[in-house]
Amino acid sequence: MPHRIQWSDLPGPVRTHLEHALGGRIVDATGPAGGFGHQLAAVLTLASGRRVFVKAAPDDDPLTASNVAEAAVLHALPHRAPAPDPITLERTHGWTVVVIEHLDGPHPDLGPGSPDTAAVPERLDKLAADPADDRYRTAVGTTAAESIRLHGWSDPHLTDLDPWASGRLDRLRDLEQAWPAHAFGDRVVHGDLRADNMVRDRIHGPVFVDWAHATLGPGWVDLASLAPQLVLAGHRPVDVADLLTGHPLTGNAPDGVDAFLAALTGHWERGSRQGDPARAPGLRAYQRRAAAAGRAPRRAPALTPGQDREPTGC
Ligand SMILES: Nc1ncnc2c1ncn2[C@@H]1O[C@H](COP(=O)(O)OP(=O)(O)O)[C@@H](O)[C@H]1O
Ligand SMILES: [Mg+2]
């Protein structure tokens, strides 16, 4: 059973409405790999050969609000942002369908030696180069301090932590508590950057998708959030630490980066121990892997130099 709503699950009148809105018959709908959402996410091919990407859910599904928020963000992002263009938002027969420019390609490869690994931080440099404008601020309506709430290490139920975490729990709790004080800034923050929230487009190269969690915050947050993703993709933790310290965005905010990464890891530790969400299979397993990647050694005051620079085997 696919966990996502399929194109064929949409009521006939919704599909017909969309054909009218797009000006052609839809001859194919292909669900992409990736993502944990249960809403429809599909590439639609029109009889003309034109392709568009759609996300859709019934209006009483909480993901509709996310999809609408994402559409507003796509409209408000600065021109330089590596994001697909929004096409239209259609509300009909109790469903909301967001139509987005189709990107043509696989998820980027964030592994060692891949050109994507260098290209993604370059995209983030451009994105963080200037303050976000008023249009974007209005569209997101939140700041990172409000929207990136990361709680984990202080949860009294985390009684089965590994020796790395339990041996420095007080320090990790301090870092987690410090995160909100570092969460201020005036830059565009994607807020959920992973390989499956990027598409390496044939023409544009790596483009960020899934902007539902976008917010306003420090320009270094997205790059810092890639650290565990790079570890998951096969980079040595020590190399990821070097990337963070050597890159101007993250290198100039070491305390914030440490607090954020510690808090993010705790968030995953706690999340991975929650019950399995029926409509997002694979989420808990991902959180377990991500928490392990976050625990992997990095150059941080939370760590004891030397002892912690060995991989933890995630
Ligand atoms: N504009 C697009 N063009 C082509 N494929 C896309 C586009 N946006 C997203 N995708 C693909 O669809 C998947 C799910 O979309 P996403 O916006 O990430 O939704 P979800 O919230 O369900 O994760 C992504 O992992 C990516 O593979
Ligand atoms: Mg996604």
Query: How is the main sheet built?
Result: 5 strands, antiparallel
Percentage of β-strand residues: 15-25%
CATH topology of the largest domain: Aminoglycoside 3'-phosphotransferase, Chain: A, domain 2
Principal-axes shape call: globular
- The number of E-state strands comes to 9
What is the number of helices?
12
Backbone CA Rg: 20 Å
| Structural class assignment | alpha+beta
Structurally, the number of domains stands at: 2
In spatial order, strands of the major sheet run 1-2-3-5-4
Q: Give the uncertain stretches in residue-range form.
A: 299-314
* Helix/strand order: HEEEHEEHHHHHEEEEHHHHH
Please name the defining characteristics of this protein.
314 residues; alpha+beta; Phosphorylase Kinase, domain 1; Aminoglycoside 3'-phosphotransferase, Chain: A, domain 2; 2 domains; two-stranded antiparallel sheet; 12 helices; globular; binds adenosine-5'-diphosphate; binds magnesium ion
Description:
This protein is α+β, with helices and mostly antiparallel strands. The chain folds into two domains: 7-101, Phosphorylase Kinase, domain 1, CATH 3.30.200.20; 115-309, Aminoglycoside 3'-phosphotransferase, Chain: A, domain 2 (Alpha-Beta Complex), CATH 3.90.1200. 40% of the residues lie in helices and 15% in strands. It has twelve helices and nine strands. It has helices spanning 12-22, 62-76, 115-127, 134-140, 144-147, 163-166, 169-182, 221-232, 237-246, 248-251, 254-272, 283-295; strands at residues 26-30, 40-46, 51-58, 86-92, 95-101, 187-189, 198-201, 205-208, 215-217. It has a five-stranded antiparallel beta sheet with strand order 1-2-3-5-4, with helices on both faces. Strand 4 (86-92) and strand 5 (95-101) form a beta hairpin. The protein is globular. The protein starts with 11 loop residues before the first helix and ends in a 19-residue tail after the last helix. The model is unreliable at 299-314 (pLDDT under 50).
